[in-house]
Amino acid sequence: MDDLLDAAARLIAIRSTADRPGELSAALEYVLGRVGPGFTVERFLSRGKPSALVHTGGTRPDFRVILNAHLDVVPAPDELFRPRIRDGRLYGRGAQDMKVAALVMADVFRELAPVLPYPLGLQLVTDEEVGGYDGTAHQIDAGVGAGFVVIGEQSGLRVVTESRGILQVRLHATGTAAHAAYPWLGDNALLKLLTGIERVLTRHPLPGHEVWATTVNVARVETPDAAVNQVPAAAVAWLDIRFPPEDRAYAGRTREQVERHLRDLSGLEVSVDGFGAPHRADPDSREVGLLRAAARDAGFGGDLLRKHGAADGRFYSARGVDAVIFGPGGDGQHGPGEYADLATVAPYRAALVTFLRALR
Predict the structure, then answer these.
(1) Which string of DSSP letters, residue by residue, matches 136-192?
(2) What is the CATH number that goes with domain 165-276?
(3) Are residues 191 and 231 in contact, defined by beta-carbon separation less than 8 angstroms?
(4) What tens-digit pLDDT sequence spans the chain (360 residues)?
(5) Beta strand 120-125 pairing with 63-70
(6) pTM
(7) Which of 42, 58, 82, 171 fits 53 for a cystine, CB–CB 3.0-4.6 Å?
(8) Where does the chain hold its CATH 3.40.630.10 domain(s)?
């Protein structure tokens, strides 16, 4: 554990955010160094985002299992890149999401890949926090596939077989500029925009508790005006929409169909910036059963879990490959108090080893 904690502290100290390509590469190289020599490392690069696929042998095999980990993190103040341990918790940006899990996966791969009776892959990416299109999705487009995928996102050793889809859109309103003293001479675009947002929120009201339903976050509202004494002639809102497979207004639809639906709903022009399908794996599959049993052997319940956030498993799910999220515990993801629960790290490693050894 001491060796792992030292490695985790070093990895957390690397500011591997999307705007720092050098640090993304540094984080990738650090984990590849942890894996060590004697393996084939395939390197990928898409739009400045590096990733790697590690396996045994010279030719890429048909993987029975891929362990998937992302090494990028969301931005944070300087102090969150100075990891600290307190009360059995490792605090720092990326401690929970998901640098500790990435190191555990690297260690398990190093130990088991040479001896398992099937091909095991380790997939390391650096763009999950900004969509995953240049890491996991890029590798899949390049022909990487597997029979089953374990993504090390945090789950408290529960097995995540479902997660909601993601839709990121902008609503656009236009009007007529005027002097603020004579508003009747103008047409306020911002007021139109707020009316359109209200229509969307009426269809998808903000829940007061956890629900498995479509939710909408209004992330930004802005106009190009620099003066307060102007009637805005243009305004835009940024929305983040998360939806389950059951919501057929979004799930199973094309970008154009979703755009049309939101245009009719809001009465505004719509731009779709990001659109990812919900993720689902068969909860009754043999692999999920073995992984749940391995979690129970490690002292946890092996429960199934639905996740509200999107992860890279959706890219495999879209290709008909079962992918689950299975990671250690912690809390505070993307927040100032993010931490990994160190009491779950050794059981998490043990569960991965048990699962991979049991699988044939």
Answers:
(1) HHHHHHTT--EEEEEE----TT-EEEEE-EEEEEEEEEE-B-EETT-GGGSB-HHHH
(2) 3.30.70.360
(3) no
(4) 899 999 999 999 999 999 999 999 999 999 999 999 999 999 999 999 999 999 998 899 999 999 999 999 999 999 999 999 999 999 999 999 999 999 999 999 999 999 999 999 999 999 999 989 999 999 999 999 999 999 999 999 999 999 999 999 999 999 999 999 999 999 999 999 999 999 999 999 999 999 999 999 999 999 999 999 999 999 999 999 999 989 999 999 999 999 999 999 999 999 999 898 899 999 999 999 999 999 999 999 999 999 998 889 999 998 999 999 999 999 999 999 999 999 999 999 999 999 999 998
(5) parallel
(6) 0.89
(7) 42
(8) 2-163+278-358
Question: DSSP states of 224-248 as a string?
Answer: S---TTEE-SEEEEEEEEEE-TT-T
Instruction: Please give the backbone phi and psi of residue 12, each rounded to the nearest 5 degrees, phi first.
Output: -65, -30
